[in-house]
Write a structure and sequence with these properties.
two-stranded parallel ribbon, two-stranded antiparallel sheet, 45% helix, 6% strand, globular
Length: 187
Amino acid sequence: INAFPILKSCSIPATVFLATGVIGSTSALWHERVFTVFRQTRARALVGFKPVKRDFLLTSIQQKLKAQQRVLEYLWSLGQEEREMALRELEERLEIVEHLATEPSRLMLSWEEVSEMYESGIEFGCHTVNHPILSKVTTEIARQEIGEAKSTIEKILKHPVNTFAYPVGRRRDFSTMTKNLVKAAGF
């Protein structure tokens, strides 16, 4: 939303890819939770979070960013349920109290903002409902994530959505199966 006035005043085209499950809410996508816990932690080290196979000092911003990247790499490799368990463990290890683990400010656009931007020429594409790593979920969950997001955006904008961006987007984050699902959904 911060770039929208600039894009509009300069007539710069843009496409925004929406993860529809958090539009208009204060909920965060799972990776935003990782960013939040590393911002909020007062812990001086990440110790005993076995999945990353090492401990990290957290006394500087650079150290926090290095640890955060390693944790993200690990979490990207997991399915949804395993990732949720690992996130809870991470919050424990970083001494994050539950009420601090979410920030009150809204991170995502509202549907009203999406509609306003669309009417001003900004295009919107699909980025699933909950931003899962599609290669790590079942075929049925991937189909649902892709199809539900597409139909929600099309319902709100009253216009076909033809573009799709894979969450994270690395080669290992999608498969032949997910590419076929995206194609079958009309992208």
